[in-house]
Design goal:
alpha/beta, 7-stranded parallel beta sheet, 32% helix
Length: 802
């Protein structure tokens, strides 16, 4: 007897453990750990993951596995172990960890159907029309015509049954191919026996006599200018056959990648690549922090390190922070390694992601380039993991499992005994502190590749501009430089850290600000469709012409969004060709790449955008970078706001003057004296690090302390407050005396989607009981979480305190 230990797809505390199922005799050879199976669970059927196989069970009678969903395991042994680690490390259910590792196409959907078990006359007459033509009907369709209670009654009486069908969204793309069923001699005989009038069929047979191989039907029809009826006739005669051939959906099918070759490394690059190659050679796990100024050639170090790994027959994972970086990164990696590269990022369709993932699973590629989730690529022989722009927030997942890709990378690096490279011009304080302590190995690149100096930065005090009567969003210096670039036919990048038209809409008579009715946040005005939108819950309403509070018509739009900047630019410089890149203009598939390509080919003078253009762009004609409001992020209620501002401004500055043409940068700000703005203009990371570390130490924040954030939300304010109070009390009682527990306090955004949010913050240096205490808190409130609408979110090492 073989018993499968299955984790079922029911995310709840009671089901967060393996259940025993008997493997039926006919599936004995087939079922393996890491496979998805369909199993009976209570009255329904659900998806589950086989964790391991055993020869006995402590239960006397077992239910059987219904059927497998896969022919080969979708998770290998290492990923199964990693899920265990992830569930302990991030306090998530194991099923959530498994789901996070798979492409969206492999996440099961359930279809509910109602099945007639008895004779039709046995059920209530009101239900007869449902089963007039068939014995099964979709749950949704049934509820359109009858009440839930009438169905429930018949289910109780045993006349109806609710069945759950598990459906996988993983559809393989199949193409129809035509082939000859006859050998050459038989084909010639078939040709001779054809009717004289059958010219079209004659042409087809002659084609197969010349090229006796399978061909896609679509190509055959167009090449011979014939119809499918002709092919059908030959299939009926037994001369030709047809078959479905599986084909990958390749997002880069239409693209030609220019082959590139390794560049000669500079002395600095040689110095940093040596220890990395040593680690690859000796199969030693080591974490390297590659700290190199913008344009210092970090990518070439990555490429040559991967090359060494591939020559050893091993595999590589490269993480990039977001889709904006992928087009140029894809070019570099595909150019160097061709078809050995798979790409995984949010801009691909569900089918494309699935096909790219299958290439990895089938060992058809050795390198994966992708965003956060690519860290779970099912490689079995990893030789290196690289995280580019390691300081980026996008590596932290904000929903369960709340993992950080960096932690997962280090864990996998340990398992595979391979190096992990964290690259950045502005490393996170935590990583740099670890490098200073010797936990990571620090490698430094201080010069740009072509020895170009870093671009000079001018800081413009916008308060002065206002005092001198300039009410425009552009300083006089920036306008002057923009005009100069237009004249010289050079390109400019304008950066603004938000999208939409204006940040908020206010009545000038009574001061009323238009707010979202479901969230405690102001609505953002989007001019292109004349709507005010909430960027948290998606609520939108037409723009107000009259104040709902005092009926005044003096409505004013405050703040600056990308659309407003584009509008202003068009007024001031009608001759300038502007490309705007933000969430609104890049939401369509492939839009991102298209816009960047237009800019690269010189079809625009100014690239205006939000965060997505701050890094990774490397275009030779960019000689001016303008930051319109350098202090947008400084005033957020977040202890990392200075660090994020410094990183962003340094990254943006690095877009200018990367090639032959010299570059310049302008920061417009209302707080020019702030150290993060001052030091980013000098690109002085070391001084920023020591200043910021002093502040972090005095306020007991990371990297001196670890933090954990507990957020409680409920539709009733009193409930949210009382639960947070209880949790805070328990944490204070059960954790060590030197652990700091702050709260309860309202979250910075105290209401989202009509739910009130309260939080408690735990700061600690060493807290051996933490995971046990947090788990017991979740267990204690489990009943209310599943029945009372209570939500408790625990984020160990959060990136956002909002």
């Amino acid at each position: 007897m073989t018993v499968a230990k299955v984790i079922v797809d029911v995310p709840a505390k009671q089901t967060d453990r393996p259940f025993d199922y008997l493997v039926p005799d006919h599936l004995e050879e087939m079922i393996q750990p890491g496979m998805r199976v369909i199993v009976p669970f209570g009255p329904r059927k659900v998806q589950g993951f086989v964790e391991r196989l055993e020869s006995e069970s402590s239960f006397a009678s077992l239910r059987k596995i219904s059927e497998p969903m896969d022919l080969v395991p979708v998770l290998n042994k290492e990923l199964l172990d990693l899920a265990e680690w992830l569930s302990i490390h991030t306090l998530c259910y194991k099923i959530s960890a498994f789901q996070a590792m798979l492409p969206p196409a492999l996440k099961a959907k359930y279809q509910r159907k109602i099945k007639l078990l008895a004779q039709k006359k046995a059920i209530s007459e009101s239900l007869h029309p449902l089963f007039s033509e068939r014995s099964e009907i979709l749950w949704e369709d049934a509820l359109k015509t009858v009440s839930l209670s009438s169905i429930q009654k018949e289910v109780k009486n045993g006349n109806l049954e609710v069945i759950y069908e598990v459906q996988s969204r993983a559809n393989k793309k199949k193409i129809k191919h035509i082939y000859s069923r006859l050998d050459e001699h038989e084909l010639k005989m078939a040709l001779e026996s054809l009717n004289k009038q059958a010219n079209k069929q004659r042409t087809v047979i002659e084609y197969f006599l010349k090229y006796n191989q399978s061909i896609e039907q679509r190509l055959l029809l167009s090449e011979l200018n014939t119809s499918s009826a002709v092919i059908k006739g030959l299939i009926e005669k037994g001369i030709l056959g047809e078959q479905e051939v599986e084909m990958y959906r390749d997002p880069y099918k239409e693209r030609e990648f220019e082959k590139t070759f390794p560049l000669t490394l500079t002395e600095e690059q040689m110095k940093v690549i040596k220890p990395i190659h040593g680690s690859i050679e000796d199969k030693e796990h080591e974490v390297f922090l590659l700290y190199g100024v913008t344009g210092s050639g970090k990518t070439e170090v990555y490429l040559q390190s991967i090359d060494k790994v591939l020559k050893k027959g091993e595999e590589a994972i490269v993480l990039v922070p977001e889709i904006a970086l992928t087009p140029q990164m894809v070019n570099r990696f595909k150019g160097r390694f061709g078809d050995k590269v798979a790409v995984l990022h949010s801009g691909l369709s569900v089918g494309e992601k699935y096909d790219e993932w299958r290439k990895i699973q089938r060992k058809e590629v050795q390198v994966v380039v992708g965003a956060r989730s690519a860290i779970f690529a099912p490689f079995e022989n990893l030789g290196i993991i690289i995280i580019d722009e390691e300081h980026e927030m996008t590596y932290k997942q904000e929903e369960n499992p709340k993992y950080h890709a960096k932690d997962v990378a280090v864990k996998r690096g340990l398992t595979h005994r391979c190096p992990v490279i964290l690259g950045s011009a502005t490393p996170s304080l935590e990583s740099f502190a670890r490098a200073q302590k010797g936990v990571y190995t620090l490698l430094t690149l201080q010069k740009r590749m072509n020895n170009n100096p870093l671009p000079p930065v001018d800081i413009v005090d916008m308060r002065e501009e206002l005092r001198e009567g300039n009410r425009s969003m552009f300083s006089r210096l920036l306008l002057e430089k923009l005009a100069d670039r237009l004249k010289k036919k050079e390109q400019t990048v304008l950066f603004l850290n938000k999208r939409g038209h204006s940040s908020f809409v206010m009545c000038r008579d009574c001061g009323y600000v238009m707010k979202c009715p479901h969230c405690d946040i102001s609505l953002t005005y989007h001019q292109y469709n004349n709507l005010m939108k909430c960027h948290y819950c998606g609520y939108e309403e037409p723009t107000a012409k009259i104040c709902p509070e005092c009926s005044s018509e003096h409505i004013r739009y405050f703040g600056t969004g990308t659309q407003k900047v584009e509008e202003e630019l068009t007024k001031i410089m009608p001759e300038a060709r502007v490309i705007r890149m933000d969430v609104d203009t890049t939401s369509r598939k492939g839009a991102h790449e298209k816009l960047l390509k237009q800019f690269q080919e010189g079809n625009a003078d100014i690239l205006l955008g939000t965060q997505m253009i701050a890094k990774g762009l490397d275009f030779p004609r960019i000689t001016l970078v303008g930051v319109l409001s350098a202090d947008t992020m400084l005033h957020l209620p977040d202890f990392r706001s200075s660090e994020k501002t410094f990183q962003l401004l340094t990254q943006v500055s690095g877009r200018a003057g990367r090639h032959e043409l010299a570059g310049e940068v302008i920061f417009q700000t209302y707080t020019p004296e702030h150290y993060s703005i001052e030091l980013s203009s000098q690109q002085n990371y070391d001084l920023f690090y020591s200043r910021e570390m002093m502040i972090r130490k005095s306020h007991s924040y990371p990297p001196y302390y670890y933090i954990t954030l507990i957020t409680v939300s409920h539709e009733q304010l009193t409930k949210a407050v009382s639960v947070t109070e209880q949790i805070t009390r328990v944490a204070r009682q059960k954790l060590l005396p030197n652990t700091v527990v702050l709260g309860p306090v309202a979250s910075p955004i105290s209401r989202i989607k009509n739910r009130y949010r309260y939080q408690c913050l735990i700061k600690y240096k060493q807290e051996p009981n933490l995971k046990t205490v947090l788990k017991s808190i979740l267990d204690h409130y489990q009943g209310e979480i599943s029945s009372n609408g209570l939500q408790i979110s625990i984020d160990v090492n959060p990136f956002l305190l909002m």
